[in-house]
Amino acid sequence: MTSPAPLDADPVRWSAEPGDRDGRPLLILLHGYGADENDLFGLVPYLPEEFVVAAVRAPLAPPFPAPGFSWYPIEGLDGRDPDHVTAAAHRLIAWTEAAASVDVPVGLLGFSQGAAVALQAMRLDPQRFSFAVNLSGYVTPGDLPRDAELAERRPPVFWGRGTNDDVIPGFLVQHTTQWLPERVDLSGRVYPGLTHSVSEQELADVRVFLDKQLEELTAAEA
């Protein structure tokens, strides 16, 4: 598969102006189906201020009358086709290469579709992404060429989901439950009663995870 064109650089929300980004790690936010770059940007006050946060917009428009944007189709016979998830992840990697120098640590935080793309991007380029936060998402089934490299590196991944989430199919949750622990340093929680959404408790847990990643990055630079 040829690498698709990078994401549009214009509809990106940044937490810092260009002059305030140097020397700081980058955290990329990837919204879910039918949303846009404004959706997860509302999380910025809950995230460590040491990160430069960039909320990017997915490239596809869902079928009418669904609002917003999507990373890959979920409708029809090719819904959730692994090739489409991989194409979206390639777009994200290309955008990252254009937005951040190779010496900038990059983490990913995605919700639902965005989380699936985040994990797929980490599988495609295990050395580029320092960690990932998977909120109500899943690992795409199928093998990728650098999965063994990912398993050797074992980057930190936080996975949060709700017991009442009826959006992500059960077989994908089961696949993710089996796949992640063998290849990443997994932490996270299943939240009783939570639907396909994010709770205050989950945000608090994400903050703890991100603070730990900052400590690890600082220690690595020392």
Key traits:
222 residues; alpha/beta; seven-stranded mixed beta sheet; globular
Written account of the structure:
The chain is an alpha/beta fold. Helix content is 33%, strand content 18%. The chain is built from 6 helices and 7 strands; from the N terminus they run E-E-H-E-H-E-H-E-H-E-H-E-H. Helix 2 (82-99) packs across helix 3. The longest helix is centred in the last third of the chain and has 22 residues, at 200-221. The chain starts with 12 loop residues before the first strand and ends with a helix. The model has no long low-confidence stretch (mean pLDDT 93).
How many distinct helices?
A: 6
Mean pLDDT: 93
Give the strand content.
15-25%
Largest sheet, strands/sense/barrel: 7 strands, mixed
The neighbouring-strand order within the major sheet is 1-3-2-4-5-6-7
The low-pLDDT segments are none
Q: What is the chain-wise order of helices and strands?
A: EEHEHEHEHEHEH
What radius of gyration results from the CA coordinates?
16 Å
Task: Sum up the overall morphology in one term.
Answer: globular
Q: What's the helical proportion of residues?
A: 25-40%
Please report the total strand number as a whole number: 7
User: Distance between the terminal alpha carbons, to the nearest Å?
Assistant: 40 Å
What's the layout of helices and strands?
Layout: E1 13-14, E2 26-30, H1 37-41, E3 52-56, H2 82-99, E4 106-111, H3 113-124, E5 129-135, H4 147-153, E6 156-162, H5 170-179, E7 185-191, H6 200-221
Parallel strand pairs: 2-3, 2-4, 4-5, 5-6, 6-7
Antiparallel strand pairs: 1-3
